[in-house]
């Protein structure tokens, strides 16, 4: 009788041991799968550092070029897909990143002092695409009619060109379009008929004017 009770006790202890180990394995597997899923999600997008260019307020107000007409700011990043998401083409995914970079110019970061922007949300963008090193910035024509004088147009062009060519290695030059077509000028002052490899105005680091 004693041996039978001991056998039952041993069998019960074995079942408890097996149950405990099974629970541990299940929990470990779930945690492992969760960790893999989290890692996979992180790997699906990468942090893209931008170089954004804003107007130097001293230059806008007083014409002071001693510190350049543009101010460079690299304190903003965007997350872009590491691989093209399903349902999108490579061109569409890239266009999204380019456009997002330019929309960051709409507002001057709080950390950036003595700066302004001439690239605002009143200037609508159809899209921005890139082919063979040339970015095509297609602007909405009706929003450009009262854009401003030659200074405003020059800074507007410079902010966009410098931001795109310095933020994206695949972009070597920028061709402006208006409603899908090449335009001699955007606001009536500057020549935009050909692609631009750099802005009309520069920063204090590399200004040539």
UniProtKB/TrEMBL annotation:
The keyword Transmembrane helix applies. Keywords: Membrane, Transmembrane, Transmembrane helix. The chain crosses the membrane at residues 12-33. Residues 98-187 form the GerMN domain. This is GerMN domain-containing protein. The lineage of its organism: Bacteria, Bacillati, Bacillota, Clostridia, Peptostreptococcales.
């Amino acid at each position: 009788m004693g041996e039978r009770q001991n056998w039952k006790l041993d069998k019960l202890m074995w079942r408890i041991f097996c149950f405990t180990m099974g629970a541990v394995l299940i929990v470990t597997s779930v945690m492992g799968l969760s960790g893999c899923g989290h890692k996979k999600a992180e790997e699906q997008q990468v942090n893209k550092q931008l170089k954004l260019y804003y107007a130097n307020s001293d230059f806008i107000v007083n014409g002071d070029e001693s510190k350049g007409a543009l101010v460079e700011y690299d304190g903003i990043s965007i997350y872009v897909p590491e691989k093209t998401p399903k349902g999108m083409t490579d061109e569409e995914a890239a266009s999204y990143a380019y456009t997002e970079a330019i929309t960051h110019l709409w507002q001057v970061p709080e950390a950036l002092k003595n700066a302004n922007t001439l690239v605002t949300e009143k200037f609508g963008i159809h899209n921005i695409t890139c082919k063979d090193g040339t970015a095509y910035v297609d602007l909405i024509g009706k929003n450009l009619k009262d854009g401003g004088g030659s200074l405003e147009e020059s800074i507007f062009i410079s902010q966009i060109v410098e931001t795109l060519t310095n933020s994206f290695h695949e972009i070597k030059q920028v061709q402006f379009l208006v409603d899908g077509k090449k335009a001699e000028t955007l606001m009536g002052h500057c020549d935009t008929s050909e692609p631009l490899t750099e802005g009309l105005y520069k920063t204090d680091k590399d200004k040539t004017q």
